[in-house]
Amino acid sequence: MVKKVLEPLKMAAEDDGTEGVSRRSLLTMLSGTSAAFAGLVMAADPDRVEALATEIANNPAIVAQSPVGLLERDPEGQVGRMQADLLKAFEKPIEQRRWAMAIDLRKCVGCNGCTIACITENKLPPGVVYRPVVTETIGTYPNVAKRFLPRPCLHCEEPPCVPVCPVGATHKRPDGIVSIDYDECIGCRYCITACPYNARTFDYGAFYSGTDKPERYEEVPSPEYGIAWNRENEESPIGNARKCHFCVHRIEKGELPACTLSCMGRATFFGDLNDPESLISELHGQPNVMRLKEELGTKPTVFYLV
User: Fold this and answer.
1) Whole-model pTM over 0.70
2) I need a surface site. Which of 70, 121, 189, 222 has the fewest CB within 10 A?
């Protein structure tokens, strides 16, 4: 089982044939551990990145905290178990899977690492955020405290965004993931209005450079839905509604979502809710489960532990 769990990550982190740890393999290993590092990589000069990657590769303590390192050291731990659950789910037909996510608000420290990892993974432009972290103050002065609430798309079982789409671009997959077909989306934004969780944003075609000419790192295609999307010539996904999709392009390669791996407090859990032996099913049965706006009857598959 350990070998089976490690295989997808090790294949992704395979060396390119050069001596020592390659830049590609190192960045792959660290991608789920250091979201800030991943963000730096996107914007930095390639020569500086190469030097930094070599320096980090020679630091065993950092490499040990990568997803591959964690699995090798503790294959039966939280990450290892979720990875095993993920691979087990793919032994079933897609209609028998039911992806879900749990977020433990007692562990979330508001570092925004998941937000940065999501932006880096999906190459998101300004104004498009799939996983914001909402900060709220609870209690009455002087007995007050802050609570952090990550809010991805909740992938509702009864999604109000689906029926309002006039062209059927927003749809629910057999495994429960609510997706957007960028080629079909006409940018009417009805779905943005219909979502009671503000989980959708619109791509207006902006760039971080603030000009019409993007920086080099902004020209990297987004891998969403397993397609290389180039934001150029006002073509999709520019002019489309956009949202979290549980990193479906990673899931279908046997990899956990970027936000799940990047969480420094291990507050995010992911798995198949139709597997009664999975970690996500165990958490789903806890008495301290909370869902946002349950009274609306949307039945979110993202739930919180409080």
Assistant:
1) yes
2) 189
